[in-house]
Amino acid sequence: MKAVISVTKVIAKYYKAFTQKFFAKESQLLVLLSIFYFVTRFFHLTILPIFNDESSYIYWSKIIATTNAHWFVSLVDGKPPLLFWIMATALWFFPGQTFLFVARSVSVFAGFFTLLGIIFIGKFLFRSQKAAVIASLLYITSPLMLIYDRLALYDSILCALLLWTTYFTLKTAKTLRFRDALTSGIFLGLSFYTKPTAAIYLLLIPLMFFIALFGVKQIFLWKKGFFLILIILFLGEAFRYSLVFSRGYRDYIIVNARYVPTVNDLMSRPLFLLERNLPAIFSWFTGYQGILFILCGFFSYIFLLFRKGKADIILMLLFLLPLLAFSFVGKILFPRYLLFIFPYFLLPVAYIISLLMTKAHQYVGWAIMTMILLYPLFLDSKLLFNPPGASLPFTEYTQLISSASSGYGLSQVFQFLDERQKKYPITIVTLGTISSYPYAFNLQYWDDKRITIIPIWPVTSTTKNQIQILAKHQHVFVILKLLRYTNHPDFLKELRLKKVFSATKPGGMDPITIAAPD
Question: What is the pTM of this model?
Answer without folding.
Answer: 0.91
